[in-house]
Amino acid sequence: MNHIRLFPRYDVRKLKSPIEIDYLVQEGWILKDIGLGGIQIRSPKMIQLEGENRRIKIKLFGKEEVLLSVTQCWSEERENEHLAGFKLYFEDLETFAHWRKILKALHTVLNKKKN
Question: Which domain holds residue 60?
Fold first, then answer.
């Protein structure tokens, strides 16, 4: 069954965004794609982030730090890599507006490259 998304996800692997959990950089974790309601991470090792509303910090575009509250929804093991999906929770309108602004900027940049 295909899942139709209301909002697209954007592949951000080329940004090489560092990921921190509880102030520790997660070596080998790569932010694969981002969307309005979730993110996907890939890693050479199993990704298991226990608990709800865990805080992770990602750095986009080399400087834009974003602190997110996430809950891991799924994980999958593939040949030589592990994937995990995380649902985002926004504690206030300001945080949501900031995340939405980042996605709109990505959308604009990626669509300009296609044209």
Answer: 10-114
